[in-house]
Design a protein that fits this description.
Elements: H1 11-116, E1 120-127, E2 132-139, H2 142-154, E3 158-168, E4 175-183
Antiparallel strand pairs: 1-2, 2-4, 3-4
């Protein structure tokens, strides 16, 4: 029997290749693991920075909102002051107008009174709100009454003399009369 030489397989080389491949796989896994770890770390860092920016923006927003609230209340109070100032100006204007009217009308009353001296005695004067003025008076004669009416019609602030009624007392000659004077619109 002959011994035949069998071919031998060098397993050492396969083992070395397997070890090398195993090392390369481990290195690849380590590199991928490190890359994943770096990626997660970078994402965490970016998230943390964004969170810090968000917190800063929220704080700034809160501060700006407080300033807006202060300015809004300031504008409201300024508007209120301006509005009340405008109302006060209107009131002052109305008061000045009324005072002027009172002064003008009192001067008119004085002018009418001066016309009546000495022949007319005024008993009652009544001012109406519709620019009318009624008067009750008496005088010593019909001639004095007519003269007084002409003088009243000659006054520039009297628009019209109307509702004239008179009664003459036959015993004394006195004339009692009532009349209505209409003021000019501008008065």
């Amino acid at each position: 029997m002959t011994v035949r030489k069998e071919s031998r397989i060098n397993l050492l080389r396969y083992q070395q290749e397997e070890t090398l491949e195993s090392r390369q796989n481990i290195q690849l896994v380590l590199i991928l693991g490190l890359a994943a770890l770096l990626l997660v770390g970078a994402m965490g860092g970016v998230w943390w920075m964004q969170n810090q920016k968000l917190q800063a923006v929220k704080a700034e927003n809160k501060q700006l909102q407080q300033q807006v609230d202060k300015l809004t209340s300031s504008v409201v109070s300024t508007d209120t002051v301006a509005k009340s100032s405008g109302e006060a100006d209107k009131r002052i204007s109305m008061i000045n107008t009324l005072e002027k009217q009172v002064k003008v009308k009192s001067k008119h009353f004085q002018d009418i009174y001066l016309l009546s001296i000495p022949s007319i005695t005024i008993g009652k004067m009544d001012v109406k709100s519709d620019n009318n003025f009624t008067m009750s008076a008496y005088c010593t004669s019909q001639g004095n009454f007519i003269k007084f009416l002409e003088q009243l019609r000659g006054l520039d602030f009297i628009k019209e003399v109307k509702n004239i009624s008179s009664k003459c007392n036959d015993k004394t000659g006195e004339v009692n009369f009532n009349l209505t004077l209409v003021w000019e619109e501008g008065e």
